[in-house]
Amino acid sequence: MMTTLTLGRALNEGMRRAMEDDPKVLVMGEDVGRLGGVFRVTDGLQKDFGEERVIDTPLAESGIVGTAIGLALRGYRPVCEIQFDGFVFPAADQIITQLAKMHLRSLGAVKLPVVVRIPCGGGIGAVEHHSESPEAYFAHTAGLRVVACSNAADAYTMIRRAIASPDPVIFFEPKRRYWDKAEVSTDVALSDLPDLHAAQVVQPGDDVTVLAYGPSVKTCLEAAAAAAAEGRSLEVIDLRSLNPLDVDTVEASVARTGRCVVVHEAPVFAGFGAELAARITERCFYRLEAPVLRVGGFSTPYPPSRLEDHYLPDLDRVLDAVDRTFAW
């Protein structure tokens, strides 16, 4: 069954399906119940599943994740919503020192199937603390699975896979893509859904590999279309998963094209693109025709909304990096 859904609605349908399939799945966070979330991603879930399974929490991110850990220890599968990306840092202690480490600390005896949903990135004209890209912090933390959807079809399948995972998952959602629509197959068994951690070639090409995830994927597809008009063929890969990383798919593409550009909204310095560049250099050194180039935000705090168009990587900055790969 194919249905046209926005990315936000696809997440809603994915959570709904998971809650129908497993009574131990809970949704919790600030304003997720009666309001349906500030982006309306959880709209209608409390009405249909009740206040005991869709829980409006206090404004206390550390408490939200800490409570979810306790619930997971009791056999539940909590899905926590962090209202905005910049609000996750009060919960960092619980995520990094407790959620990520419990499995190893217990020698495998304890599993914490907790999903932490984080609307991420800029592009919505928000105020300070509402447009961050904190993925590198969590990808660096062993014990966490870190994924990022970029479109409605992936949003639906990935959230279902994440909720079913026995391990904690940090789930990034590109907030400026919440209203993008796509065809979504909603009548699929969990066992038939794509692997949560497999990268996807979303635009085949021969000249340059362009790696992206989350909100940057659409920007890179637009750049690929523009490059095609100029006679260059870009292969765009949606990483989907940052940890674990599907290195094999990346390596196969870069070994064939010989050039690579990495794009993300987070600052370039020490961003996730640095890990990608290092991995590609290690595995494709003798196949590279040029250094791996990175396109991202600047090493400044996220700017006021009137300046964010200058901060965020756009089509022109991606194409400029593509041009520079041919200068070597």
TrEMBL record:
Gene Ontology molecular function: magnesium ion binding; oxidoreductase activity
Top-level division of the source organism's lineage: Bacteria
Keywords assigned: Oxidoreductase, Thiamine pyrophosphate
Matching SMART domains: Transket_pyr
Positions of the Transketolase-like pyrimidine-binding domain: 5-180
Entry cofactors: thiamine diphosphate
CDD domains: TPP_PYR_E1-PDHc-beta_like
PANTHER family named among the record's database cross-references: PYRUVATE DEHYDROGENASE E1 COMPONENT BETA SUBUNIT, PYRUVATE DEHYDROGENASE E1 COMPONENT SUBUNIT BETA
Name of the featured protein: Alpha-ketoacid dehydrogenase subunit beta
